Amino acid sequence: MIDGYPLIPEELPAQFKAAMRRLAASVSIVVAKGDDGPVGIAATSITSLTADPPALLVCVNRTTSLHALLVPTAPLSINLLGRDQKMISAAFGGGAPREERFRIGEWVDGGNGLPSLAGAQANMECVIDAMLAYGTHSIVIARVLRARVSDGVDPLIYQDGGYL
Ligand SMILES: Cc1cc2nc3c(=O)[nH]c(=O)nc-3n(C[C@H](O)[C@H](O)[C@H](O)COP(=O)(O)O)c2cc1C
After folding, report:
1. Closest C-alpha to 42, from 84, 95, 83
2. Which of 29, 35, 41, 156 to mutate to test ligand 1, by most ligand atoms within 8 A of the CB atom?
3. Is the dihedral of CA 155, 24, 133, 137 positive or negative?
4. How far, in Å, CA of 117 to CA of 105, rounded?
5. Which atom of ligand 1 is nearest to the CA of 92?
6. Is the CB–ligand 1 distance for residue 60 below 6 Å?
7. Fewer CB within 10 A of the end CB, N or C, for the chain?
8. Domain for residue 11, yes or no?
């Protein structure tokens, strides 16, 4: 045991990564309020948690700029990308400097003081209810206060290191 986690065989990390490359997931942009404006990252780790109350979880790496802003009661804007929004995923996934990311795509006032992405598959205004640290990440439980959806269903899917 190191730091409370069991020792793992040498080959397991690579095998785990190979397995996860086969886990297809839709891509979202998660946005929180920073001191100098909004901060956002691309995330595939959004999962529906429960409908009562409407809540989801997102797993955020502690090395990201977003993580320092995540505290209980903080608002979040969660935007599910459409298949035509690969550029936005690439930018918020690290392809663009933090201060330039919101220049890519059309961002409008989401109503909770955070930007909301126009043309997304869905936009959700959330508030953080709880957090759990695990390994390199935190599991963030976000309660959904408002949700809007687009007319057609055509999400952006990420798998095997690329987009469908
Ligand atoms: C498709 C895709 C999915 C990602 N999913 C996650 C995720 O679920 N959680 C996470 O912490 N980082 C995820 N990342 C990585 C972050 O988006 C990336 O590290 C981000 O640019 C960090 O922002 P920063 O430079 O402002 O810290 C993902 C990146 C991509 C391209």
Report:
1. 95
2. 41
3. negative
4. 7
5. 21
6. yes
7. N
8. no
63: CATH: 2.30.110.10
Whether 143 lines ligand 1, by a CB cut-off of 6 Å, is: no
Least confident of 1-5, 104-108, 138-142: 1-5
Structural domain includes residue 17: no
**Is 164 within the bounds of a domain?**
no
- Residue 148 tokens, joined: 């809007």
Q: 120 CB contacts (<8 Å, ≥6 apart)?
A: 29, 79, 80, 81, 82, 85, 150
Kindly report the backbone phi and psi dihedral angles of residue 69, in degrees, each rounded to the nearest multiple of 5, phi listed first.
-95, -5
pTM assigned to the model: 0.96
Give the single-character DSSP code of 99: G
Q: What tens digit of pLDDT does each residue of 15-72 get?
A: 999 999 999 999 999 999 999 999 999 999 999 999 999 999 999 999 999 999 999 9
